[in-house]
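Researcher: We plan to redesign the surface later, but first we want a full-length starting point. C-alpha coordinates attached.
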Protein backbone atom coordinates (compact mmCIF):
# COMPACT_ATOMS: atom_id res chain seq x y z
CA UNK A 1 0.00 0.00 0.00
CA UNK A 2 1.35 3.40 -0.99
CA UNK A 3 1.14 5.80 1.96
CA UNK A 4 -1.04 8.80 1.31
CA UNK A 5 -1.36 12.13 3.03
CA UNK A 6 -3.56 12.21 6.09
CA UNK A 7 -7.07 13.40 5.31
CA UNK A 8 -7.96 16.67 6.95
CA UNK A 9 -11.53 15.93 7.89
CA UNK A 10 -13.77 13.81 5.73
CA UNK A 11 -16.93 11.82 6.03
CA UNK A 12 -16.70 8.08 6.80
CA UNK A 13 -16.45 5.74 3.83
CA UNK A 14 -20.08 4.73 3.24
CA UNK A 15 -19.22 1.50 1.41
CA UNK A 16 -17.44 -0.04 4.38
CA UNK A 17 -19.49 -2.92 5.79
CA UNK A 18 -19.63 -4.63 9.14
CA UNK A 19 -21.22 -7.92 10.08
CA UNK A 20 -22.77 -8.09 13.53
CA UNK A 21 -23.78 -11.46 14.98
CA UNK A 22 -25.85 -11.43 18.18
CA UNK A 23 -29.10 -13.12 19.23
CA UNK A 24 -30.10 -10.09 21.34
CA UNK A 25 -31.82 -7.17 19.62
CA UNK A 26 -30.74 -4.63 22.26
CA UNK A 27 -27.14 -5.77 21.93
CA UNK A 28 -27.27 -5.46 18.14
CA UNK A 29 -28.56 -1.89 18.49
CA UNK A 30 -25.72 -1.10 20.89
CA UNK A 31 -23.01 -2.45 18.60
CA UNK A 32 -24.58 -0.94 15.48
CA UNK A 33 -24.43 2.51 17.05
CA UNK A 34 -20.75 2.17 17.87
CA UNK A 35 -19.84 0.66 14.52
CA UNK A 36 -21.52 3.58 12.75
CA UNK A 37 -19.59 5.95 15.03
CA UNK A 38 -16.29 4.66 13.61
CA UNK A 39 -17.31 5.11 9.99
CA UNK A 40 -19.13 1.91 9.06
CA UNK A 41 -21.75 2.72 6.44
CA UNK A 42 -23.53 -0.63 6.26
CA UNK A 43 -24.13 -2.95 9.20
CA UNK A 44 -25.39 -6.44 8.39
CA UNK A 45 -27.18 -7.93 11.40
CA UNK A 46 -27.38 -11.67 11.97
CA UNK A 47 -29.16 -13.56 14.75
CA UNK A 48 -26.91 -16.62 14.81
CA UNK A 49 -24.35 -18.77 12.95
CA UNK A 50 -26.37 -19.82 9.88
CA UNK A 51 -27.82 -16.33 9.48
CA UNK A 52 -24.28 -14.89 9.74
CA UNK A 53 -22.96 -17.04 6.88
CA UNK A 54 -25.92 -16.06 4.67
CA UNK A 55 -25.64 -12.33 5.47
CA UNK A 56 -21.86 -12.39 5.18
CA UNK A 57 -22.10 -13.52 1.57
CA UNK A 58 -24.04 -10.38 0.62
CA UNK A 59 -21.20 -7.99 1.53
CA UNK A 60 -18.98 -6.52 -1.17
CA UNK A 61 -16.74 -4.74 1.36
CA UNK A 62 -15.44 -6.49 4.47
CA UNK A 63 -14.77 -4.21 7.42
CA UNK A 64 -15.12 -5.75 10.86
CA UNK A 65 -17.16 -8.72 12.01
CA UNK A 66 -18.36 -8.62 15.63
CA UNK A 67 -19.55 -11.99 16.95
CA UNK A 68 -21.26 -11.87 20.33
CA UNK A 69 -21.20 -15.39 21.74
CA UNK A 70 -19.11 -17.88 23.67
CA UNK A 71 -16.86 -20.06 21.45
CA UNK A 72 -18.40 -23.19 23.00
CA UNK A 73 -21.84 -22.36 21.60
CA UNK A 74 -22.92 -24.64 18.79
CA UNK A 75 -21.23 -24.21 15.44
CA UNK A 76 -19.71 -20.77 16.07
CA UNK A 77 -16.10 -21.85 15.40
CA UNK A 78 -17.14 -23.44 12.12
CA UNK A 79 -19.10 -20.29 11.31
CA UNK A 80 -16.06 -18.10 11.99
CA UNK A 81 -14.00 -20.29 9.67
CA UNK A 82 -16.61 -19.86 6.94
CA UNK A 83 -16.75 -16.10 7.51
CA UNK A 84 -12.97 -15.88 7.15
CA UNK A 85 -13.24 -17.73 3.83
CA UNK A 86 -15.77 -15.12 2.72
CA UNK A 87 -13.25 -12.36 3.45
CA UNK A 88 -14.16 -11.36 7.01
CA UNK A 89 -10.65 -11.32 8.49
CA UNK A 90 -11.18 -8.57 11.09
CA UNK A 91 -13.08 -10.67 13.61
CA UNK A 92 -13.91 -9.50 17.13
CA UNK A 93 -15.49 -11.95 19.56
CA UNK A 94 -17.49 -10.63 22.50
CA UNK A 95 -18.18 -13.25 25.16
CA UNK A 96 -19.63 -13.33 28.67
CA UNK A 97 -16.93 -15.84 29.58
CA UNK A 98 -13.22 -15.15 29.97
CA UNK A 99 -11.88 -18.45 31.30
CA UNK A 100 -8.70 -19.92 29.85
CA UNK A 101 -10.47 -22.53 27.72
CA UNK A 102 -12.79 -19.94 26.16
CA UNK A 103 -9.90 -17.65 25.28
CA UNK A 104 -7.94 -20.59 23.85
CA UNK A 105 -10.88 -21.55 21.62
CA UNK A 106 -11.23 -17.97 20.41
CA UNK A 107 -7.53 -17.76 19.56
CA UNK A 108 -7.73 -21.09 17.74
CA UNK A 109 -10.47 -19.54 15.59
CA UNK A 110 -8.04 -16.69 14.76
CA UNK A 111 -10.25 -13.91 16.04
CA UNK A 112 -8.57 -10.49 15.98
CA UNK A 113 -9.74 -9.41 19.40
CA UNK A 114 -11.49 -11.13 22.30
CA UNK A 115 -13.63 -9.04 24.64
CA UNK A 116 -15.15 -10.29 27.89
CA UNK A 117 -18.38 -8.51 28.83
CA UNK A 118 -21.39 -9.41 30.92
CA UNK A 119 -23.42 -6.90 28.91
CA UNK A 120 -22.58 -4.70 25.91
CA UNK A 121 -22.58 -1.61 28.14
CA UNK A 122 -19.59 -3.03 30.00
CA UNK A 123 -17.46 -3.00 26.86
CA UNK A 124 -15.40 -0.08 25.67
CA UNK A 125 -16.84 0.90 22.31
CA UNK A 126 -14.80 -0.08 19.30
CA UNK A 127 -13.25 3.11 18.02
CA UNK A 128 -15.45 5.29 20.22
CA UNK A 129 -12.76 7.84 20.75
CA UNK A 130 -12.64 11.56 20.28
CA UNK A 131 -9.34 11.10 18.49
CA UNK A 132 -9.90 12.57 15.05
CA UNK A 133 -7.94 11.98 11.84
CA UNK A 134 -6.04 15.21 12.43
CA UNK A 135 -4.45 13.61 15.53
CA UNK A 136 -3.26 10.51 13.69
CA UNK A 137 0.28 11.72 13.20
CA UNK A 138 1.67 8.36 12.09
CA UNK A 139 4.83 7.57 10.17
CA UNK A 140 4.75 5.67 6.89
CA UNK A 141 6.10 2.58 8.66
CA UNK A 142 3.42 2.80 11.36
CA UNK A 143 0.75 2.93 8.66
CA UNK A 144 2.25 -0.13 6.99
CA UNK A 145 2.22 -1.99 10.30
CA UNK A 146 -1.45 -1.10 10.94
CA UNK A 147 -2.42 -2.22 7.42
CA UNK A 148 -0.86 -5.63 7.97
CA UNK A 149 -2.49 -5.92 11.40
CA UNK A 150 -5.85 -5.02 9.82
CA UNK A 151 -5.32 -7.82 7.32
CA UNK A 152 -5.28 -10.30 10.20
CA UNK A 153 -1.54 -10.71 10.74
CA UNK A 154 0.08 -11.13 14.15
CA UNK A 155 3.31 -9.35 15.11
CA UNK A 156 5.51 -12.16 13.82
CA UNK A 157 3.76 -12.24 10.43
CA UNK A 158 3.93 -8.45 10.14
CA UNK A 159 7.64 -8.60 10.98
CA UNK A 160 8.28 -11.14 8.20
CA UNK A 161 6.36 -9.11 5.62
CA UNK A 162 8.13 -5.85 6.49
CA UNK A 163 11.58 -7.37 7.17
CA UNK A 164 11.51 -6.25 10.80
CA UNK A 165 11.95 -8.04 14.09
CA UNK A 166 8.78 -8.97 16.03
CA UNK A 167 10.06 -6.75 18.86
CA UNK A 168 10.20 -3.77 16.48
CA UNK A 169 6.63 -4.43 15.36
CA UNK A 170 5.56 -4.62 19.01
CA UNK A 171 7.27 -1.27 19.63
CA UNK A 172 5.48 0.27 16.64
CA UNK A 173 2.12 -0.97 17.95
CA UNK A 174 2.86 0.40 21.43
CA UNK A 175 3.80 3.78 19.98
CA UNK A 176 0.68 3.85 17.81
CA UNK A 177 -1.43 2.89 20.82
CA UNK A 178 0.02 5.78 22.83
CA UNK A 179 -0.72 8.21 20.00
CA UNK A 180 -4.32 7.01 19.75
CA UNK A 181 -4.89 6.62 23.47
CA UNK A 182 -5.69 2.91 23.30
CA UNK A 183 -3.84 -0.37 23.56
CA UNK A 184 -6.63 -2.40 21.95
CA UNK A 185 -5.66 -3.66 18.48
CA UNK A 186 -9.23 -3.68 17.20
CA UNK A 187 -9.74 -0.08 18.26
CA UNK A 188 -6.44 0.97 16.67
CA UNK A 189 -7.56 -0.63 13.41
CA UNK A 190 -11.01 0.96 13.65
CA UNK A 191 -9.54 4.44 14.15
CA UNK A 192 -7.11 3.97 11.27
CA UNK A 193 -9.98 2.81 9.02
CA UNK A 194 -12.04 5.81 10.05
CA UNK A 195 -9.16 8.13 9.12
CA UNK A 196 -8.78 6.44 5.72
CA UNK A 197 -5.24 5.28 6.47
CA UNK A 198 -6.00 1.65 5.69
CA UNK A 199 -8.57 -0.23 3.66
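Model: Full-length starting sequence:
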Amino acid sequence: MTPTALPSSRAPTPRMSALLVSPEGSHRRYWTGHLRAVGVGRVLEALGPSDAVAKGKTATEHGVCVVETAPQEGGILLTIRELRQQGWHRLVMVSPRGDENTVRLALAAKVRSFVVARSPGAVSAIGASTTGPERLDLSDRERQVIQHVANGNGNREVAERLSLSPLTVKSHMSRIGRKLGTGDRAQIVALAMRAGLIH
